[in-house]
Design a protein that fits this description.
about 70% helix, mainly alpha, globular
Length: about 70
């Protein structure tokens, strides 16, 4: 659900956030971006905390609507 994802990306904690973080971390590890799932979890948490994950989602949404998010 989109609202749940937005809550997680805004920093809401809990079981749902843990699941989202773990799934993202596994994908990052499988794609070879990190050497371990543990490191990937730290990377995901860092990018949620500093707002990069939410900015990326907002940029993707703007791009999907035909906008250039960096203009």
């Amino acid at each position: 659900n989109a609202l749940i994802l937005l809550d997680v990306l805004k920093g809401k904690e809990g079981a749902v956030a843990d699941t989202v973080i773990f799934n993202a971390a596994v994908a990052i590890y499988v794609y070879g971006i990190t050497a371990s799932i543990e490191h990937a979890i730290l990377l995901v948490k860092k990018n949620i905390k500093n707002g990069k994950a939410l900015r990326l989602l907002n940029d993707f949404f703007a791009f999907s609507q035909g906008e250039n998010p960096h203009e």
